């Protein structure tokens, strides 16, 4: 990339998953940071699986209730405290969320939130769901069956994401 002043710039993904632009200063013969995204939550999958990014909390990466950090590095994501049991699982609700990536998502028409929850509960592979009302009396039920990645928390807007957890893990994480 060349700027209008003839300087050469390059874009890189930094170690924290933040985009950075470096500009070459020939008089100093070095690359200097000239711009970066100051919101690390901007980066895709910044926090790893079962973790969400929030620029409004002291810790950028936060494990979902019922999950614990995999390693000391928060960017590696989180793991379940207790395996899903299928028959007795509950849901924890994350409000105002950017929904996880949709590679393992399935959409279907649903009458309401309760119908969507029941549909997720009977499928032992279902890890989370959300209900998006689109027409009076109907909406879309979106369910996920794989690991939940690329989530972000907003102060307002977004969707309520209901994540499946073991009943013993309510309040853990």
From TrEMBL:
Pfam families: PAN_2, S_locus_glycop
Record PROSITE patterns: PAN
The keyword Secreted belongs to this UniProt entry's keyword annotation: no
CDD domains on file: PAN_AP_plant (cd01098)
SMART domains documented for this protein: PAN_AP
Chain ranges of the Apple domain: 86-166
GO biological process terms on file: recognition of pollen
Keywords noted in UniProt: Disulfide bond, Signal
UniProt name for this protein: Apple domain-containing protein
Species, as recorded: Brassica carinata (Ethiopian mustard)
């Amino acid at each position: 990339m060349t700027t209008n002043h003839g300087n050469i710039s390059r874009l890189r993904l930094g170690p924290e998953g933040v985009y950075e632009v470096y500009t070459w200063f020939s008089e100093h013969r070095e690359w200097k940071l000239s711009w970066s995204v100051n919101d690390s939550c901007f980066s895709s999958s910044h926090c790893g699986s079962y973790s969400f990014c929030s620029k409004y909390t002291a810790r950028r990466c936060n494990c979902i209730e019922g999950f614990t950090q995999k390693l000391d590095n928060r960017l590696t994501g989180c793991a379940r405290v207790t395996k899903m049991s299928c028959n007795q699982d509950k849901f924890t609700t994350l409000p105002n969320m950017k929904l996880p990536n949709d590679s393992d998502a399935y959409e279907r028409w649903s009458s309401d939130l309760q119908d969507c929850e029941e549909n997720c509960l009977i499928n032992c592979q279902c890890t989370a769901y959300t209900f998006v009302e689109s027409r009076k009396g109907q909406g879309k039920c979106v369910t996920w069956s794989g690991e939940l990645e690329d989530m972000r928390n907003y102060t307002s807007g977004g969707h309520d994401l209901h994540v499946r957890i073991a009943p013993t893990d309510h309040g853990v994480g």
